[in-house]
């Protein structure tokens, strides 16, 4: 059966609210033995957690390690984009040489498509750069709270762009998130570890994540709906746009003066960071495929909680009760928002449309 095309407003609404197209979710749960499906889900979720947490800790090492003493956050981000670009092209070539062995779309650089993707690439650059800059200036333990306003920006942009109102319960969960964010900022300040620069970058990163969801939905048709093609073009554009930034910010000179520039360990860590950056996109899609978008959000919230606890233990930090309360407010508010949106979407799907009501009343 052909699926009716979605209106632009509906696409933007889905992007902002984290909802998937309900007509495509029915095929997700084909008949499989329960134990097999449970094992698959456990492995996929564990892979997502391991990849995401490892990437955060590795990026913190590259961006703010006393042993490295490398102050080039833009270059670190540029190199990760370069690794992702090369991996995408390599896998595309491998798929062409061994058809049937692996499933990966063919990638050929088309300047017209690259220009079409450019607005999204600018937002993408902002998202990954502000994420890394936030991580550079704040601790891993505070990183989740520092970037916790994505949900709030989703609600705000859905109103500004779509004139879409949000339910009272969803707004209440956003209030909990904002309260947790401010309490976290207050407690970081009380402990003398607050970085206003890092907090600002975290807020900008949250805004860019929301904008990225909007532009991704709008730009996907230009790459035939292929996420991997979009990843390729995004990272190619990012590599080009990062070059003048490296010159303007003097990071190339800082690299020339870097004592470990010829170290195999340094480049190994940099390349591993790029591999994790590539892998997180794959395992995220894999987790959504084996569970659901809403379950993915819940898993991400639980992962953030585990990441915070690990960071406090690893860096041997001592946090106050109110600091932990701020984290629980952010995580609890995010989980509650996910649950409320899932309940609302389910309610909408179960309600019969006006035409169906009319047909049933006519006995058709």
From TrEMBL:
Taxonomy, superkingdom: Eukaryota
InterPro entries in the record: EmrE-like, Sugar_P_trans_dom, TPT_transporter
Membrane-topology descriptor: Multi-pass membrane protein
Domain Sugar phosphate transporter positions: 40-334
Localization (cell): Membrane
Keyword Transmembrane attached: yes
Family: Belongs to the TPT transporter family. SLC35E subfamily.
Protein name, as recorded: GDP-fucose transporter 1
Origin species: Neomonachus schauinslandi
Species classification: Eukaryota, Metazoa, Chordata, Craniata, Vertebrata
């Amino acid at each position: 059966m052909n699926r009716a095309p979605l209106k632009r407003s509906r696409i933007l609404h889905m992007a902002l609210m984290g909802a998937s197209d309900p007509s495509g979710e029915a095929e997700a749960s084909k008949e499989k033995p329960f134990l097999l499906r449970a094992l698959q889900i456990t492995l996929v979720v564990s892979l997502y957690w391991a990849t995401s947490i490892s990437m955060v800790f590795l990026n913190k090492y590259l961006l703010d390690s006393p042993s490295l003493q490398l102050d080039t956050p833009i270059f670190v981000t540029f190199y990760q984009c370069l690794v992702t670009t090369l991996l995408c092209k390599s896998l595309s070539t491998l798929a062409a040489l061994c058809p049937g062995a692996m499933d990966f779309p063919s990638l050929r650089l088309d300047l017209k498509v690259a220009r079409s993707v450019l607005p999204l690439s600018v937002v993408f650059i902002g998202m990954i750069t502000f994420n890394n800059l936030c991580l550079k200036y704040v601790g891993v333990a505070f990183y989740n709270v520092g970037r916790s306003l994505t949900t709030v920006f989703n609600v705000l942009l859905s109103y500004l762009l779509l004139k879409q109102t949000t339910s009272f319960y969803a707004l209440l969960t956003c209030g909990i998130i904002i309260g947790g964010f401010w309490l976290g900022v207050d407690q970081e300040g009380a402990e003398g570890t607050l970085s206003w620069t890092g907090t600002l970058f975290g807020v900008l990163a949250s805004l860019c994540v929301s904008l990225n969801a909007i532009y991704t939905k709008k730009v996907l048709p230009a790459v035939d709906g292929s996420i991997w093609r979009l990843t390729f073009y995004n990272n190619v554009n990012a590599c080009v746009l990062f070059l003048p930034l490296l010159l303007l910010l003097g990071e190339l000179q800082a690299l020339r003066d870097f004592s470990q520039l010829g170290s195999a360990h340094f480049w190994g860590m940099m390349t591993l960071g790029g591999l994790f950056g590539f892998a997180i996109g794959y395992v995220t899609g894999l987790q959504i495929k084996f569970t659901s978008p809403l379950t993915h959000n819940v898993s991400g919230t639980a992962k953030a909680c585990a990441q915070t606890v690990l960071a406090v233990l690893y860096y041997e930090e001592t946090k106050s009760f109110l600091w932990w309360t701020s984290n629980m407010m952010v995580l609890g508010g995010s989980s509650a928002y996910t649950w409320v949106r899932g309940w609302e979407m389910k309610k909408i799907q179960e309600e019969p449309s006006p035409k169906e009501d009319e047909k049933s009343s006519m006995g058709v």
